[in-house]
Design brief:
The chain is mainly β. The chain contains no helices and 11 strands. The strands form 2 sheets. Strands 2, 4, 5, 6, 9, 10 and 11 form a 7-stranded mixed beta sheet that branches. A 4-stranded antiparallel beta sheet has the order 1-3-8-7, with no helix packed on it.
Length: 127
């Protein structure tokens, strides 16, 4: 397992933007599938975006496609989540997750597949 640390959350008005960062402490960052999940109050944790370890193409949940952009910088052991056109329903704690050599079928990724998690960062979107 690796240690993950998220940052960049905060309070923003509807339509605004935020960028989250997630930095890992482990080695061989490029061998990790990295993902973003979020959990709203009273709801289950849900998938937001992910990079399979073997590629650079991000995959997104339908609810954030076209608004969120995930990027990965292997030289900095960091993944980012740029969130534009934020809506009140995006309000949640956002978590970064990592798992080595994890492969997945698009649309089936679940939190149980990841053993390493960050502490989460709160994103609040006001209407």
């Amino acid at each position: 397992q690796v240690q993950l640390e998220e940052s960049g959350g905060g309070l923003v008005q509807s339509g605004g933007s935020l960028r989250l960062s997630c930095t890992t402490s482990g080695r061989a960052f490029s061998s990790y599938t990295m993902a973003w999940f979020r959990q709203a109050p009273g709801k289950e944790r849900e998938f937001v975006a992910a990079f399979m370890w073997s590629g650079t193409t991000p995959y997104y949940a339908d609810s954030v496609k076209g608004r969120f952009t995930a990027t990965r910088d292997n030289s900095k052991n960091t993944v980012y989540l740029r969130m534009n056109s934020l809506k009140p329903e995006d309000t949640a704690v956002y978590y970064c997750a990592a798992e080595p050599y994890l492969t997945f079928i698009i649309g089936t990724l679940r939190e149980a597949a990841f053993r390493s998690w960050g502490q989460g960062t709160q994103v609040t979107v006001s209407s």
